[in-house]
Predict the 3D structure of the following.
Amino acid sequence: MPLRTPRLLSGLGAEDALDIALALLDRPQTIGQLAEVTGLSQPTVSRRVAALRDASVVEHVRRKGTIQIRDPDAVRRLLLAASAIAGDLAGADADDEAEFRRRLVERE
C-alpha cells in the first residue's frame, strides 16, 4: 500500500495550494469562486484542487458543484504544526509563519 504522506505534502506544498485550502476552510466554494477569492486563474485552481483531491484533503459536493475540505480540523492542525516547524527551522521567517498561524486560527 503506497503512503499517502507524500501526496498530502505535495498537494499542500505550494503557496497557491495553501491559499485555496485557507479559502475552503472559510466555506465550500466552486472553482470559479476560488479563482475569484485567490486571484488565481481557473486552470491553476483546477490543477491545485485535483492535487488536493488526490491527497484526500478536499472532496467535491456534486449536487452543489462545490469543493470542501474533508476534515477541516485535521487540515487546520496540520497547517498549524507545519507552520510552527517551518518557523523553528528558518528563524528568519518566524514572523511570517506566526502571521500565517494567526490567519489560520482566525478562521476557526
